[in-house]
């Protein structure tokens, strides 16, 4: 990989890199753009768009193998301490494997042949989150005029909501696997017989969203075909697993351990989601820079971010600037931009130290907002 800095830029772009960018003191920060930063991002990352198939396959398969090994070792553990250790291994492995669903929504499938099918068979279907629940939804979150508005399926102004919404937002994720299993094992087959229920399932229960007002449109063309086979396969798996537990083919203890680990995976992802943005927009259309500053990077040296924000998610703000760059190139993109952009650049204002500080900031914002409403 080439070592790039401001010297590799076109003369016009290079001249702007050291421009001081005014702090966000404008009357309406959501209308301000840091054009110097945006030009630098375009110039410095244009060679980082190619996905590395070998890295995708090796990372995903290793993560899934670790996760499922941890699951089976947890089921067979002879002591509580050993079970907890193996369970932690299972959660982290499956969480990283499942996080590749984010990459599926951004990479060209031809660049990593067979990866989408393999991900669904190994992670998506077994964990009740087939890729159609994210594809066609997540791209709306990146739409220029949708981000942070009522039309964004992945946004809520959490920093401006009641303080009790934050723990509720996190804790409800523990019920995710049960809700998803019910959706596929019970609602899916019933909805084929009851048209109004089918409409409800398609609109309300077919996306990994956090905005309760979002309604999904029915898929068309190739997306519809993919949706149907993935939904059917997940329904067969969920219904078969339920029957196997009821008939005793699958021991109840093993099933509960599986659900517990899946719940922990969703809990960890929900905590990560809680800190992916600052959640401070009140529904107004935002500039690219404002969207970037409402998002979060947690770059090195903190090592733990790679565990709770894996597969490039620790560079979530940067990802909003360059969504087409694969996860394995984001660290290099961040290194180049950090070195090239002046300290006054907006780019550095989206970098945070770690999870505790982000959670505390969000909690303070929520309590402050509640106090202002009460006055």
Automatic annotation (TrEMBL):
Q: Does the keyword Membrane apply?
A: yes
Q: Which GO terms describe its molecular function?
A: oxidoreductase activity, acting on paired donors, with oxidation of a pair of donors resulting in the reduction of molecular oxygen to two molecules of water
- What Pfam families does the annotation carry? FA_desaturase
Cellular compartments per GO CC: membrane
What are the record keywords, sorted? Membrane, Transmembrane, Transmembrane helix
Q: Which residues form the Fatty acid desaturase domain?
A: 84-345
Membrane-spanning intervals of the chain:
65-95, 115-134, 164-186, 227-246, 252-269
Q: Which GO terms describe its biological process?
A: lipid biosynthetic process
Q: What is this protein called?
A: Fatty acid desaturase
Biological classification of the source? Bacteria, Pseudomonadati, Pseudomonadota, Alphaproteobacteria, Sphingomonadales
């Amino acid at each position: 990989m080439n070592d790039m800095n401001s010297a590799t830029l076109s003369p016009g772009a290079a001249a702007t890199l050291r421009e001081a960018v005014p702090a966000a003191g404008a009357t309406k920060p959501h209308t301000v753009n840091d054009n110097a930063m945006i030009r630098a991002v375009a110039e410095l990352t244009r060679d980082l768009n190619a996905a590395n198939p070998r890295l995708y396959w090796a990372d995903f398969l290793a993560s899934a193998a670790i996760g499922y090994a941890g699951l089976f070792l947890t089921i067979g553990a002879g002591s509580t301490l050993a079970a907890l250790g193996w369970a932690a291994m299972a959660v982290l492995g499956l969480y990283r494997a499942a996080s590749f669903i984010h990459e599926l929504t951004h990479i060209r499938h031809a660049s990593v042949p067979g990866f989408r099918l393999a991900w669904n068979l190994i992670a998506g279907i077994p964990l009740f989150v087939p890729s159609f629940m994210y594809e066609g939804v997540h791209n709306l979150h990146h739409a220029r005029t949708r981000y942070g508005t009522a039309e964004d399926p992945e946004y809520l102004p959490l920093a401006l909501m009641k303080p009790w919404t934050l723990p509720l937002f996190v804790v409800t994720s523990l019920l995710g696997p049960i809700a998803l299993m019910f959706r596929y094992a019970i609602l899916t087959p019933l909805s084929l017989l009851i048209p109004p229920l089918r409409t409800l399932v398609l609109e309300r229960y077919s996306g990994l969203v956090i905005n309760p007002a979002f309604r999904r449109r029915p898929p068309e063309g190739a997306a519809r075909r993919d949706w149907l086979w993935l939904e059917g396969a997940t329904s067969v798996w969920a219904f078969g697993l339920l029957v196997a537990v009821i008939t005793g083919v699958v021991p109840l203890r093993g099933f509960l351990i599986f659900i517990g680990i899946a719940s922990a995976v969703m809990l960890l992802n929900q905590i990560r989601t809680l800190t992916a943005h600052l959640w401070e927009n009140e529904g107004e259309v935002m500039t690219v820079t404002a969207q970037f500053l409402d998002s979060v990077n947690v770059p090195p040296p903190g090592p733990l971010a790679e565990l709770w924000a894996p597969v490039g998610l620790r560079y979530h703000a940067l990802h909003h600037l360059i969504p087409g760059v694969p996860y394995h190139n984001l660290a290099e993109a961040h290194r180049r931009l950090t070195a090239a952009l002046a300290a006054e650049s907006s780019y550095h204002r989206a970098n945070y130290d770690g999870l505790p500080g982000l959670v505390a900031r969000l909690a303070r914002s929520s309590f402050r907002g509640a106090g202002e409403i009460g006055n």
